[in-house]
Amino acid sequence: QVQLVESGGGLVQAGGSLRLSCAASGRTFSSYAMGWFRQAPGKEREFVARISKSGSSTYYANSVKGRFTISRDNAKNTVYLQMNSLKPEDTAVYYCARSVSSYPTSIYEYDYWGQGTQVTVSS
What we know:
This protein is mostly beta strands and 123 residues long. The protein contains no helices and 11 strands. The chain has strands at 4-7, 10-13, 18-24, 34-39, 46-51, 58-60, 68-73, 78-83, 92-99, 110-113, 117-122. It is globular, with a radius of gyration of 13 Å.
């Protein structure tokens, strides 16, 4: 059983930064691509960013490109999301997830999810 635990969320003013972490249990972390998603109240969960098994390849939603950076440390079984220049529209619960595909293109390719961490950006 894989467990993903997010941390690092909080309240920040517009223009500020936060760094989210997602710690994974198990010994096969480096064998899976990982992704970050978010869900705002009343909205569907949406893709934010993903990273390949080795960390050499990343992909971002247009809404966060240039502001957010996904990275991973396979020695620590952890994936990160550095969020800069935050906007009120970034307010959401942020989830990390493990992908069964090397280069996932659908939310349905993710099999394990964390419990989420709240990010609130005030204007």
